């Protein structure tokens, strides 16, 4: 694919380049010639950028004509789902845009999506990586942005931390954390105060990750001062788009990349990653010195540590085929390096925190809010939960499959409020799909939010109806019509973990509390804003009553 050099620069870099160019011309050439050269150069640049903007039209693919510098990026940033909805109405289910200098094909066509994420996975195995630092840094080692054989190797190595067998072992820790949440919420039931749902459920998901991934008690329900771990973990999610550092990195991406390569320091969130690298290295040293550690610890940390040097086989049963695809398991038979480096182990632990904390808390808080607004669904759910529990305190592994209505409520919540509103893939091999020629370097995006709200897939899409996910109704639906966890070999690795965590928590909540509406809160559907992740337009609260 033709790469546009100008599009690879940030706006700040372009301004500096243009200023230097004009300064040199006016310094060394007579004014008239310098002036004429600038006019000609501007014309040539305009022609080049405009021509690049026609990328998809020249291939016969419709789509909005974006700004010649930013393509459709600025318009999209205002609200991704409104941008997609508007353009699907105008151009159909598949259309082309230029985002940040990269030609991006957006599709809501379910067969097309299946072709990309499953059938032609070989041509679309990776996600685009916009980072220019190319450092041997913890952030460059996250599974989410790893590409090619590196991605296969790491995914193959860490999948055992997420199998059904592993979830069974993590259940007591999840039950413990949800019990802590119930104790924490008891205060709200007693006082009658509104529960700030996102805050309460974020405390839970952080606690679960702490216990199951790092074997650490983060004490998140304690309102005293945060431990350093909790402080930095929270800070990781507190990115202010208009902070000077963020604006600098956006404006000068190449300069920031060079700076990182020269100094070994990344500008954004450096203190956070320094802290995690140091403290995880310390825990790693302690565990590697302890010969009993493999038996003693049951967390993901230990599982990943065991794969530092060993070449032991990774065994996955057919039950876990959804998270370990053929494309990944091939690595087991290859002669490539199969182990993980220390840096890679640390990076995956952090990505579990980053990928699992906010997404799961968001889904759980929407479920609780919906229950407060839909007493009929809440009662039906409670009946099922009490029946399955049959007088026991917590659910057990074997109960998971029996909680059918609970699973339907979670699926419907993820349909209406998918935390990740878009997923994407990078084309790594020129391939033609449905008559559209895709070139290496193109990106392809799928609009999860609008797929989930397309009346062709779900009649009356803004109605909350868990029965859409009854076994009969589900069987008739296209598999790509419900993709909150993505699809294909790169599907969310923590999908089962998140499902277990949500079931355990909701069983305890529904058993212990009645969810009631708070005054002044919006009805259903909840108004949302969709930027990188989906969020409600207002902070959601409800009241609870102890049962
Ligand atoms: C409700 C909760 C969650 C949702 C909705 C969610 C959603 C997603 C989505 C949409 C993707 C991209 C999939 C694709 O491109 O096809 C993804 C990837 C990923 N998720 Fe999740 N996620 C959730 C929870 C978790 C948890 C709890 C963890 C780990 C503890 C996790 C770890 C990951 C990882 C490691 C990837 C990258 C997989 C790869 O590139 O191979 N997620 N997730």
Describe this structure in words.
It is a single chain. This protein has 547 residues and is an alpha+beta fold. It folds into 2 domains: 1-53; 142-420 and 453-546, Orthogonal Bundle (Cytochrome p450), CATH 1.10.630.10. 51% of the residues lie in helices and 9% in strands. The strands form 4 sheets. The chain has a 4-stranded mixed sheet with strand order 1-2-7-4. The protein has a 3-stranded antiparallel sheet with strand order 3-11-8. A hairpin with a 3-residue loop joins strand 9 and strand 10. The protein is globular and about 90 Å long. The termini are far apart. The mean pLDDT is 86. Bound molecules: protoporphyrin IX containing FE. The site of protoporphyrin IX containing FE (HEM) has 24 residues, from helix 17 and helix 22.
Defining key terms:
547 residues; alpha+beta; Cytochrome p450; 2 domains; four-stranded mixed beta sheet; three-stranded antiparallel beta sheet; 9% strand; binds protoporphyrin IX containing FE
């Amino acid at each position: 694919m033709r790469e546009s050099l100008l599009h690879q620069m940030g706006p700040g870099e372009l301004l500096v380049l243009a200023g230097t160019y004009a300064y040199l011309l006016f310094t060394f050439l007579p004014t008239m010639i310098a002036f004429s050269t600038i006019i000609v150069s501007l014309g040539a640049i305009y022609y080049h950028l405009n021509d690049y903007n026609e990328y998809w039209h020249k291939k016969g693919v419709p789509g909005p004509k974006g700004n010649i510098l930013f393509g459709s990026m600025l318009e999209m940033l205002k609200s991704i789902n409104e941008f997609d909805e508007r353009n699907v109405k105008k151009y159909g289910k598949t259309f082309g845009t230029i985002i940040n200098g990269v030609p991006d094909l957006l599709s809501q066509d379910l067969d097309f999506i299946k072709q990309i994420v499953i059938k032609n996975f070989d041509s679309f195995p990776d996600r685009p990586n916009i980072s220019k630092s190319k450092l041997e840094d913890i952030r460059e080692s996250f599974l989410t942005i790893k590409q090619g054989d590196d991605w296969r190797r790491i995914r193959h190595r860490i999948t055992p931390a997420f199998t059904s067998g592993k979830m069974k072992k993590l259940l007591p820790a999840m039950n413990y954390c949800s019990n802590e949440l119930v104790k924490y919420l008891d205060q709200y039931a007693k006082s009658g105060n509104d529960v700030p749902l996102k805050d309460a459920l974020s405390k839970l998901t952080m606690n679960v990750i702490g216990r199951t991934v790092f074997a650490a008690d983060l004490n998140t329900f304690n309102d005293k001062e945060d431990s350093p771990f909790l402080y930095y973990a929270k800070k990781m999610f507190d990115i202010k788009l208009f902070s000077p550092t963020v604006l600098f990195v956006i404006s000068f991406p190449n300069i920031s990349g060079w700076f990182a390569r020269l100094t070994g320091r990344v500008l954004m969130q450096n203190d956070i990653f320094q802290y995690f690298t140091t403290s995880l290295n310390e825990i790693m040293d302690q565990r590697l010195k302890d010969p009993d550690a493999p038996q003693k610890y049951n967390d993901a940390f230990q599982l990943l540590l065991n794969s530092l040097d060993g070449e032991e086989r990774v065994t996955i049963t057919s039950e876990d085929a959804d998270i370990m695809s053929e494309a990944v398991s091939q690595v087991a038979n290859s002669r490539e390096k199969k182990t993980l480096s220390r840096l890679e182990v640390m990076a995956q632990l952090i990505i579990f925190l980053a990928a699992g904390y906010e997404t799961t808390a968001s889904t759980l808080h929407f479920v609780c809010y919906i229950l407060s607004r839909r007493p009929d669904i809440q009662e039906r759910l409670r009946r099922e939960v009490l029946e399955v529990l049959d007088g026991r305190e917590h659910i057990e592994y074997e109960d998971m499959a029996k909680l059918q209505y609970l699973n339907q409520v979670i699926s419907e919540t993820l349909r209406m409020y998918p935390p990740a509103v878009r997923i994407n893939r990078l084309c790594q091999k020129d391939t033609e799909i449905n008559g559209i020629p895709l070139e290496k370097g193109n990106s392809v995006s799928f609009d999860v939010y609008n797929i989930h709200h397309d009346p062709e897939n779900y009649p009356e899409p803004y109605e909350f109806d868990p029965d859409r996910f009854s076994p009969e109704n589900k069987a008739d639906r296209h598999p790509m019509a419900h993709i909150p966890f993505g699809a294909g070999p790169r599907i969310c690795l923590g999908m089962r973990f998140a499902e277990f965590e949500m079931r355990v928590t909701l069983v305890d909540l529904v058993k212990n509390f009645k969810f009631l509406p708070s005054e002044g809160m919006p009805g259903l559907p909840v108004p949302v804003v969709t930027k990188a992740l989906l969020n409600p337009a207002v902070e959601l609260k409800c009241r609870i009553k102890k049962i």
